[in-house]
Amino acid sequence: MKMEEMSLSGLDNSKLEAIAQEIYADLVEDSCLGFCFEVHRAVKCGYFFLDDTDPDSMKDFEIVDQPGLDIFGQVFNQWKSKECVCPNCSRSIAASRFAPHLEKCLGMGRNSSRIANRRIANSNNMNKSESDQEDNDDINDNDWSYGSEKKAKKRKSDKLWYLPFQNPNSPRRSKSLKHKNGELSNSDPFKYNNSTGISYETLGPEELRSLLTTLIFLFQQCGVISEHTKKMCTRSLRCPQHTDEQRRTVRIYFLGPSAVLPEVESSLDNDSFDMTDSQALISRLQWDGSSDLSPSDSGSSKTSENQGWGLGTNSSESRKTKKKKSHLSLVGTASSLGSNKKKKPKPPAPPTPSIYDDIN
Amino acid sequence: MCKDYVYDKDIEQIAKEEQGEALKLQASTSTEVSHQQCSGPGLGEKYPTWETTKPELELLGHPRRRRIASSFTIGLRGLINLGNTCFMNCIVQALTHTPILRDFFLSDRHSCEMPSPELCLVCEMSSLFRELYSGNPSPHVPYKLLHLVWIHARHLAGYRQQDAHEFLIAALDVLHRHCKGDDVGKAANNPNHCNCIIDQIFTGGLHTDVTCQACHGVSTTIDPCWDISLDLPGSCTSFWPMSPGRESSVNGESHIPGITTLTDCLRRFTRPEHLGSSAKIKCGSCQSYQESTKQLTMNKLPVVACFHFKRFEHSAKQRRKITTYISFPLELDMTPFMASSKESRMNGQLQLPTSSGNDENKYSLFAVVNHQGTLESGHYTSFIRHHKDQWFKCDDAVITKASIKDVLDSEGYLLFYHKQVLEHESEKVKEMNTQAY
Q1: How far is it, in rounded angstroms, from Cα A318 to Cα A303?
Q2: CA contacts within 13 A on the Cβ side of A273
Q3: Active site residues of B
Q4: Which of A58, A100, A5 is nearest to B70 (CA)?
Q5: What does the angle CA B169 – CA B170 – CA B172 come to, to the nearest 5 degrees?
Q6: A with B: how many residue pairs have Cβ under 8 Å apart?
Q7: Residue from B76, B80, B89 to probe the interface with A (highest A Cβ count within 10 Å)
Q8: Closest-CA residue of chain B to A73
Q9: B404–A contact, CB cutoff 8 A
C-alpha cells in the first residue's frame, strides 16, 4: 500500500481501520518479537525450564514458627546423645561433656598437673611399661584417661597392676603358695576368696617390675587397697582415709611378716629415700642373666623373709627359681632398707652393693 | 527445512568476539554508548547475559530443584553446648551471619598458607560456614573449633564460664593471624596495614586528641580497634547526664525519659574529657606538664561495628553485673561520632544527620548477644538477622523465630552493626590510611 499516494480523508472507515490494524500489528510485533526470540532461544538451548523448582521439596525447608518447636519443627532438648571424637586422644566423647574432657586431655585441668607428676614418677620406675594409675580423686571422673596416642582399651598392664588383687580366675592364682607361715595364705585382709599371694615362678620381668613399683610405693604412699577399685591408695603415708593398721597389713602382704610400716615421724627419713635410689635399684634389675645367689648373703633375716614369700628356699633349686629369688632378695633388701630407716639412719647403700657383688 | 530459527554455538561465539571488538572501537571514538550494550565508562568490554553451557545444564537440571526463599531455614542451624560454651556459640552465630564475612567464606576465598591446615582457624571457619548453611536441621557440634581456639589462645583454654566479648576479640585475633594467604594484593607491601578479611571488615580507627590546656596544641593518635567498649550509667565511672529529648532521638530510638540509649553511650564515649591535675601530660609543643583534655572519635569506620556494653564491673569495691536496660536502634548513623564532626561537638551540639546526608556512615543491626544471670554464672543467647528482615533467637541448639520487638527489648551486651553501603576505597584514601597506622 502506498501511503503517500493516498490522502486519509478520502478513505472510508473500513480502510482506515485496516490501516490502523496493520500499524497496531506492526507495533505489537516489534515489541513482542524480541521476547519471542528470547523464549525460542531459551527453549532451543535448553535453559527455559531452569527456573522451575520442585514445590514438594521446597516445603522441607520452610521455617516453622510454633511454640515448643524450633524452626525445623523439632522438639527442644533432644540432643543429649550427640557425640564427637576428641582430636587429642581420638576417643568418642558425649558432646555436652567435651569441654571438660578436653581440658583434662590437654593437661589443663585442676588435677592434671598432679596426675602428670605421678605419671612421670611411674614411667621412671617402669620405663616403657604403660601405667594407667589413677588418682583416687579421679575415680568418679569417667572422662579422664591417660594416653594421648593410645586407644582406650584395657591393657595388659592394667591387669598387671591388679595382679595380686583381682582376677580370681587367673591361672597364676590357682597355684597356691607354700607358706611356711601358713596364716598368711588364710588371712585375706582384702576379702578375696581364692588363694592370696603370688606365684613367682610364672611372673615375667614386666610383672616383676610392676611389683617392684608397688613396693617402691609402699615407702612413700599409703598403699591401702581400695575395696571399690582394687587399687592402691596413692595418697601420702598420713592419708586420712586409711588407718595405719590397714597400711601395715598391705606391707605385710607384700613384704612378709617382718615388714614394718614406715613410721610417720620418720617419714622425713623416708623422703630421703629418694627416687634416685629406687631408680638405681630398678636399673640394676634390668639384667637378664641369672646367677647364683646365696641366700646367706642377704642376711639371715632376709632369708626368713624369703621363706615368708613362699618361694622355694632351697638353693639347690633351678636357676629359674634362683633368678626369682634374687629379685626377691632385692625386694627383701628394699624392705630391710625400710626397716632400717625406721630405726635411724643407717645408710641404705652398704647392703645393696653386697648383693650386687654376687650378682655381677 | 522446518523454517525454524537455529542457534549455532560457533557462529555465536564468533559474533560475540566481533561485537566486542566493535564496541572497543566505538568506546574509543564516541562517548555515546548504545543502550543495549552496557559498558562502563572507560571500559570497552561488553557484559553479555549469562547463558548456560551444556555441562552446566546437566548440573542445574536436577528434578528436585529448590530456590532459596525468604521462608527457608537454610543458613540457620543450632550449635551444641560442649559444656559452658554458650559464649562461643553466640559469637559463632554472630560471625556466620555477618553478611560480608558470609560472602567471603561461601565463595571459598580463603587459601590456606599455614604449615598444617588442620590447625588453621580460618579453614575451620570455612568449614563452619559450610556446615551452618547446609540446611541440616540437626545441630552442629563445634568441637574442632573449641580445640583450635584453646590451642591458639591459651588464655581462654579451660572448662569454665567465659566472657563472650573476650572470646570475640581472641577469635578475631587468631583469624587475623591465620589469614596470611588471603592478602588482597596491594597492601602486601605495607606490613603495618594488614589487608586480611578480618581487618577489612572489623578494624576501625580510633582517633584520640589530647589538647594541651596551656597552648592548645593538639596531639593526635589513631589506634586500630575491633570494637567499642561503652561504659554504662550506674557503673562506678560517672556517666554523662541525660540530655533533654531532642538529641536522643537522633537515631530514631524511641526516647523515653529515663532510658539510656546507645546514642547516649556513644556521646559519652566521644565527649571531651578533662584529665585532672593528677594526670598532667607533657605537651610536645610547649614542653611543659599541663592539664589536658582528651577526646575520642572515630577516624575510620569499620564495615562491621561491634559495640560492647561494659556490664561486668570488677572494681575494687565490688564485682557485679549492671543490668540497666539500654535502648538501641535498628539503624544507626555514626556521623556525629566521627572525627570530622568534632567542630560541632565543641559547640555542645550534636550534629543531627541530615536526611539527604551521605549514607556511608549508616549502619544496620544484624546480631545481638545477650547475657542472662549473674557475674558468676549465667547463660548467653543471641538474636541474629537472616533473610534481610527476619530475626531468630539462637539458644545453643535451639533456634526459634523472634520478633523485632523481642530483639530491641532485650538487655543487650554485644551489638553488631553492618554498614549499609559498601563503597570502593579510592587509592588516595587507602594511602592515607596506611600512613595513619
Answers
A1: 17
A2: 29
A3: 86, 379
A4: A58
A5: 65
A6: 123
A7: B80
A8: B137
A9: no
Say if CB A86 and CB A102 are below 8 A apart. yes
Which residues are B260's β-sheet partners?
B326
Hunting for cell 583450635 — which residue is that? B148
Helix intervals (H) in chain A: 13-45, 55-59, 98-105, 112-126, 156-161, 171-174, 183-186, 205-220, 244-255, 267-272, 275-284, 300-309, 319-343, 351-359
Taking contacts as CB-CB distances below 8 angstroms, the residues of chain B near A102 are 143, 146-147, 150, 159
Interval B229-241: pLDDT, tens: 998 887 666 665 5
Give the DSSP H or E segment for B306.
strand B304-309
Q: What is the pLDDT of residue B167?
A: 93
A239: left (phi over 0), alpha (psi -120 to 50) or beta: beta
Identify the pLDDT of residue A301: 41
| Pairing, β B218-225 against β B204-212 | antiparallel
The single residue listed with the C-alpha cell 647364683 is A292
**Burial class of residue B308, CB neighbours in 10 A (0-12, 13-18, 19+):** buried
Instruction: From residue B262, give the alpha-carbon distance in Å to each of A249, A274, B353.
Output: 72, 65, 16
Write out the DSSP string of A316-335: TS-HHHHHHHHHHHHHHHHH
- pLDDT < 70: residue spans in chain A: 1-11, 126-218, 228-230, 256-360
For residue B386, the cross-strand partners are B390
CA angle A163, A164, A170 (to 5 degrees): 60
Is residue A10 classed exposed, middle or buried when 0-12, 13-18 and 19+ CB atoms within 10 A define those classes? exposed
**Closest to A89 measured CA to CA, from A80, A98, A79:** A98
Is B261 within 8 Å of B230 (Cβ atoms)? no
Lowest mean pLDDT among A198-212, B163-177, B423-437: B423-437
Residue B85's closest CA among B393, B397, B407?
A: B397
Integer Cα distance of A133 and A295 in angstroms: 34
- Interchain pair B66, A86: CB under 8 A: no
Burial environment of residue B376 by CB neighbours within 10 A (0 to 12, 13 to 18, 19 or more): exposed
Q: What is the ipTM of this complex?
A: 0.76
Whether the CB of A206 is below 8 Å from some CB of chain B: the reply is no
